[in-house]
Amino acid sequence: MILYASEYGTTKQISQELANLLNCQAYPYDAPDLIEKITDTSFLILASDVLLLKINKGFLRFIKSQKNLISQKKIGILLVCGSPDDKEINGVKLGISQYIPNFPEDIVKQALLIKAINGKIDFEITDQHKRMIEIMKGHFLVEPFDATPLNDLPGIAREIKKKLG
Ligand SMILES: Cc1cc2nc3c(=O)[nH]c(=O)nc-3n(C[C@H](O)[C@H](O)[C@H](O)COP(=O)(O)O)c2cc1C
């Protein structure tokens, strides 16, 4: 199954489409009866959005609290973010090498697949982060973008099947 955290909906959309392709279920990390659902699954994709260089805090808390259960599964980590590639912009390190250390080390070590893909930013809906958006706009983020690789999802689903199936 896929367990996701999504502030603005892109990770949710991607998780649901991947779940359709993989013939499994996708749930938000605060869904009811998750422990039973995780207990019953053989593989677990942890899909999180990245905001302000961090993985969703509530999601991380959940992962840490269920580390023993989660580590019995075949694990994949999927990050949905604006900068999937490791690079530096104005002295800020981005990409997978920046975000992955947010996860507990043993979960990362055990992951059979770690992938970062593009999401989107719509300035109209990022109301909670208006001030940060203004700062980002002043530095490097000028345009809203939608680079969600929906067309790539069948390929990503195949990769997941191959590595976790
Ligand atoms: C306030 C804010 C901060 C963000 N910070 C980062 C960041 O540090 N690194 C990154 O790669 N993407 C960043 N993004 C891009 C998000 O990861 C992208 O919008 C993603 O699609 C959000 O997923 P969601 O719709 O599931 O919440 C940021 C977006 C917003 C709105």
Describe the structure.
This protein has a single domain, classed as Flavodoxin domain (Rossmann fold). 39% of the residues lie in helices and 24% in strands. It is built from eight helices and ten strands. The strands form three sheets. Strands 1, 2, 3, 4, 5 and 8 form a six-stranded mixed sheet that branches. The chain has a two-stranded antiparallel ribbon with strand order 6-7. A two-stranded antiparallel sheet has the order 9-10. Helix 1 crosses helix 8. The structure holds flavin mononucleotide. The site of flavin mononucleotide has 23 residues, from helix 1, strand 3, strand 5, strand 9 and helix 7.
Bulk shape: globular
Q: Mean pLDDT across all residues, rounded?
A: 90
Fraction of residues in helix: 25-40%
Each distinct ligand: flavin mononucleotide
Determine the CATH superfamily. Answer: Flavodoxin domain
Q: What name is given to the CATH topology?
A: Rossmann fold
| CA radius of gyration | 16 Å
Report a brief summary of the structure.
The protein has eight helices and ten strands. Helices cover 39% and strands 24% of the residues. The strands form three sheets. Strands 1, 2, 3, 4, 5 and 8 form a six-stranded mixed sheet that branches. A two-stranded antiparallel sheet has the order 6-7.
